[in-house]
Amino acid sequence: MPLELDTRRFFDPRRNGVLRDHVESRFLAWRNGRCVGRIAAGWRREGAPDGVGTFGFLALERDPAALAALLRAAGECLAARGARRLRGPLSLTINHEAGALVEGFGRPGMVRMPRTPDWLPAMLEGAGLKPERDVLACTLTLAEERHRARFAALLARWPGAADLRVRQLDPRRFGDEIRLVTTLYNDAWADNWGAVPVGEAEAATIARVMRPLLRAGAVLVAEWRGEPVGVLSLIPNLEEATEGLGGRLLPFGWLRVARVLLGRGRSARVPMLGTVRRFRGHPVSAMAVGALLDRAIGIAAARGWSAVEISWILDDNAPMLRTMARLPAPVTGRWRLYGAPLPRCA
């Protein structure tokens, strides 16, 4: 369950830079004086080129009428701002939590990966939304990984090995490094379905959230002949600490969180792994991904983590899914995004 503190901070413009670039509206559904659901609608302040507005932070009782009312409220709000299509569930953008879970129920939670009820997908379709895209989680069990030995052999035979380097983010130049990571991310993900660039204010928020996670985790940059070409982030799974707390840290949840932040958990997540577009289809890109994964797996092994989830991955990203199969990191979770056209406002 997400921490109540995290949800409140997400909607606090003083703490969340994404609200500089996006406007949000929140709605509650009530029946007989009792709240039965919530939803948030999101829209880019400068307007979305594709006309897509988003809905997310959806939580409700198993009640089709409540869902229909919430979606109608969000849709009408977005249409009034110029949106032509409704998409979700998304926590404002696809850069954050995405989708309704359709496969992988019963597995332990993973940081920033939504856990929605099994009845929600059918209810969304019953409300008139259509599936648009699936995003996947692939999980590597460290005891079964084959990547490091295989990659070492490939690297030894590759003529460009001496020109490829992987380094960790330099904490002494934290601000500059975050700007570099943001640039790499915006380039690497620019052609992806539903991509939304990360702005400076949002990047500053992500940096603030990430900084304590880097005590056990890492941000890695791959360089080819001194040029940054790829990026990977590895973070400890805070869901291990917050499980069973009912959304509250007090009185003893802080101790559990501190333990995970120090790397004493069981699992971790790779939420970011990509290479810049200029090298797509080039051996440099494939080797950079291999080198980033090699270093990340080494860090996970040193921490004693038993599993690393790589998530999320678009379901049509064949090259990345082939890489996952070789690790091996089979698909362990699937989330679905839904959409519907919005009527034009007069």
Descriptive report:
It contains eleven helices and 14 strands. Helix 5 (147-157) packs antiparallel against helix 10 (283-303) and helix 6 (174-188) crosses helix 7. With 346 residues, it is of the alpha+beta class. The radius of gyration is 20 Å and the shape is globular. Strand 12, helix 10 and strand 13 (307-314) form a beta-alpha-beta unit. Strands 1, 2, 3, 4, 7, 8, 9, 10, 11, 12, 13 and 14 form a twelve-stranded mixed beta sheet that branches. Strands 5-6 form a two-stranded antiparallel sheet. It is 34% helix and 31% strand. The protein folds into two domains: 4-135, Aminopeptidase; 140-335, Aminopeptidase (3-Layer(aba) Sandwich). It comes from uncultured Acetobacteraceae bacterium. InterPro entries: Acyl_CoA_acyltransferase (IPR016181), BcerS-like (IPR039968). This is N-acetyltransferase domain-containing protein.
Write a short abstract of this structure.
The protein is an alpha+beta fold and 346 residues long. It has helices at residues 4-10, 18-21, 64-81, 120-126, 147-157, 174-188, 200-213, 239-242, 253-261, 283-303, 318-326; strands at residues 22-31, 34-44, 52-60, 85-88, 90-91, 93-98, 100-103, 130-141, 164-168, 218-224, 227-236, 267-275, 307-314, 331-341. This is N-acetyltransferase domain-containing protein.
